[in-house]
Each structure stands twice: as structure tokens, then as C-alpha cells.
Amino acid sequence: MKENKSNKSPLYDLEQLPQQYAELKAAYEKNIAEQKQAEKELKNDEARYKAIFESTGTATLIVDEDTTILMANNECMDITGYTTAELIGKKWTNYVSEESLQEMLQNHQLRRENPDLAPRKYEVKLVNSKCETRDAVLNINMIPGTQQSVVSLLDITERKQAEDELRKNKTSLEEYFENDISADYLVSVSGEIFSCNKTFLSLFGFQRKSETEKFDITGLYKNPQDRKQIIRLIKLYRKVENYEVEFISREGKTIYALVNAIGIFGKDDKLEKIRGYIVDITKQKNIEKELIKFKLAIERSSEAIFITDLEGHIIFINPAFGKLYGYTGDECIGKTPRILKSGTYNENVYKDFWNTLLSKNAVSGEIVNKTKTGSLLTVDVYNTSIFDLNGGISGFIGIHRDITERKKHEEELRKSEEKYRLLFDNNPQPMWIYDLETLAFLEVNQAAISSYGYSMDEFLSMTLKDIRPIEDIPTLLEDIKNTHLEYNIAGEWKH
């Protein structure tokens, strides 16, 4: 006879331990899987960012509020003569000609006080490593939510020099007009195209020059008001420089471009024609958008991220790094990650770490670091090299995730499992764990082995039905079915 079901067995709590343990373990494994997926996505984004930044084809910088250069790609060497390592951490004011410095400083300050009033594009004169003056067009965008800006530099020295020569020689002007890499054109004030070069045809989708005859150039402007503004500026200043416009090609493709134009005036000083050239910056604009998006992703990441130069000096940290370790950007920039050393490991560990990175391999795993206040944190780290287009190492990036709480939970889980194991193994009453679906024994204690006479291997090859009389099997199965729905009820069984 079964006992009254209202009387619960004193073994009830112990029998629930396996299920509770399994639930806790499943939740932990799910959390680990989610963390690994987030890390994978961040790593993919980091690789994408590096590829975009280093493959722009345009000299590009990220500049801080105090004029410090935080990042620079390899294209900067073409215009400045300096390597990225020589540029990063320096002030951009070091590379500006005296005649442009004051204007650039004013625009730099104005851009952070009132971005709408600061010009996004303008011409400046730079000084390269050979002390040569180079003409360049700056294209500057603020990174939302920061005091940092993305700066693209377009070297127009040769073009400026060519323009000076063209003013002296009309024949050279015609040759330049036709072969210029810019889209050159001559139009009436009303918009009728008189002439254009091969680049113009290619850029806007014309097959031959005859297609442009009497074509109204206004139809190529995405916003016709832009052309009206260009005409107004030419009437006022007789020219317009680096006016950014969105055009629409004949195929409907958006083209981002800079327009430079001069007015041709009649004897009565009436504007009659406009000669201009269009520089396609579509690729540059798209890359700038990608850089800004990725920069924002790093800034807003919950993972602590820092970047160092080739010598290991920190040149960038994100807010999560400061929050995790307690350091400000000023306290970190120029320092090495040794400020995080906890004293837990000997010097050989760090030497191996550094040598692995220099051999172009990633370093990952758990490590104990120290915060600014001296607290110790267990962090999951991923550190890897940043490569230039030639495959050389240009710096390093580190991604740290605080797993201190996770480690505490793991220790609690270990202690819980150890407690369960002791109770299970040393209990004087026969106990076992079985699969609810197959009824196969998963584990039995020593008391069960002693009481039933089966060895551990024999038990693990059997099911619960093997130790019950055949006539009790239906009742056993019904009882097990109810185990899914309610607490298990103790009772008497024949074995």
C-alpha cells in the first residue's frame, strides 16, 4: 500500500537538487553563449572598421578636442610624409603652414561650439616632412556625442599648380579641361551646357558629348536650390570653392561632389557663363559614414576597449574602459597597459603575452587586473594586432569584459555541486538519478550498490523498470508521468 500522498518524503529536497542544478547550469551556458556571440560580433565589427579605415584611398584622421591626432591611416603618409606612428599622439597644428594655422584653429574651436557655423570643407596649406608646403582640401565631420572629428585630406597641390599654369596658357587650359580627372564643364547662367570633358561624361552617364548639347545642367542637381546658391555666390565673389553638392546621374545614382567654379562676366559686369569642375567624393563620403558608425559602436560598447600604438602606448580608450578601470582618457593616453597589472602574475606571463602579439597572434583568456583604486577584477580579454595594408603591425587593440560576478557564480555553483555530491554519495539510503524519458539510470550512490547488489557499471546499463516487479510497471510509469506535473510523492514500492 502507498503511504498518504500528503506526507512528503524527507528526501524530497535532495531529489530536487539534480533538476535545480541542471536548470542553473543551462542558464549559465546560455549566458556564456550569448556573451560569445556578442564578442564575435564585436570582433567582426572591429575587423570591418580596420579594413574600412585603412582602405579609404583618402588620407583620414580622427582628431580630439585638444588637436591630438588619435588615429591616422597609411594614406596620410602620401600627403604629410610622416608614418602613422609618427602622427598618432601628436598635435595636428605641427603640420599646418603659418598662413593657415589661425583659420584652422578658429574653425576647430567654432566646430565644437556651434558646428552649423563652422565650414565643413575648406582649403589649407600643410607642411610635409620635407618642409614642403602642400595645398589640401579638408573635409571635416564631428563624431556625434563626442568632441572628436573625422578629417579627410585631399591633396590638391598638383591641381593648384596646374591651375596656375593654365591661367598662363590657353592651349594648356584646353588640354587640361579635356583630360582633367575632375568633371569639368562650361555652362550658361540658365544651365545650358556648352562643353564638358570626358570625366564629366563618365561621371553623369553620358555616352557622347552630343548628348550634353543644350542639356540643362540643373537636371543633374538633386536639389536645384544648390545651383541657385552657387550662382548667387559667384555673383558676389566671382567664384565658389569646394561647395558640397549631391548630384543625380542619368541612371539615378546619387553622387556626392565638391563644386569649384569661376564666373565669366561680360563688359557690363553681367555674369554670362560659368566654368567649373566637379570632384567626385562619393567613396570618401560613404567611408566617412562607415567610420562614424563604427566609432559610435566602439564608444557605446559595453565592452572595455583600448587601442595602443606599436610600442604599446595607449592612444584611445572608450567610456566602458574608464567605467571598468576608473581611469580618465588623460590618465591613460601615453601610458601602457601595465597600469592594469595586478601583481598576480610573474613577469614571464607578460613577456609571453607581448611576444604572442608581436608574432601576429591573438591573446585571449581570463586574467586578473587592477583598477585605479586597487580593486582586483577578473576579466575575459581578447587582444590582437592591427595590421596595415602591407600586413605589418601598426598597433594593438584590446577588448576586456568584467567576469568577476560570473566567476563568483561559478564558485557558488561548484560549492553547490560539491555539497550535492557529498549528500548523494554518503547518504545511507539508496539514491539514484535517472532519465525521465528513458528511465535509464544516470548515477547511483554506494548505498544503492550495497542494497541491490549491482555494480556501478551494471546499474548504468539498466533502467528503473529493471528493479521493479512487472506488475508494478504501469503504476511506476504513471507515477513518473506525474513527476512532470507536480512534486514527487514518496511511497512504498516493491524492488
Structure description:
- The protein is of the alpha+beta class and 495 residues long.
- 40% of the residues lie in helices and 25% in strands.
- The two termini are 14 Å apart.
Question: Would you kindly provide a brief summary of this structure?
Answer:
Helices cover 40% and strands 25% of the residues. With 495 residues, it is an alpha+beta fold. The radius of gyration is 36 Å and the shape is elongated.
Q: Keywords, please?
A:
single chain; disordered N terminus; elongated; 16 helices; five-stranded antiparallel β-sheet; 17 strands; 495 residues; alpha+beta
User: Stretches where pLDDT falls below 50 for ≥5 residues?
Assistant: 1-6
Instruction: Let me know the largest β-sheet.
Output: 5 strands, antiparallel
Given helix and strand content, the structural type is alpha+beta
Shape: elongated
Helix content: 40-55%
The share of residues in extended strands comes to 15-25%
Number of helices: 16
* Total count of strands: 17
Distance between the termini: 14 Å
Rounded to an integer in angstroms, the radius of gyration calculated over CA atoms is 36 Å
Would you tell me the overall average pLDDT? 85
Query: Order of strands across the widest beta sheet?
Result: 2-1-5-4-3
